[in-house]
Amino acid sequence: MRIRLKQILDQQGKTRNWLSVQTGISYNAIHQLYEERKTKVEFDTIEKICKALQCTPNDIFELEDN
Description:
By secondary structure, this protein is mainly α. Helix content is 59%, strand content 6%. The chain has 5 helices and 2 strands; from the N terminus they run E-H-H-H-H-H-E. Strands 1-2 form a two-stranded antiparallel ribbon. Helix 2 (16-23) crosses helix 3 (27-34).
């Protein structure tokens, strides 16, 4: 499963810093998601990101073919 945060932020013309400020999630945590380095994500983090970006979890996550 992939996190598509970079693509969504790019499409919306928003930055990692903007998302960090809007959600209260640390820049470092946002950066790790953006770079797809994080392997675990809490539900409240997903909820905050979805609210800030006005999207659903289906927009953020993508299944990878193995």
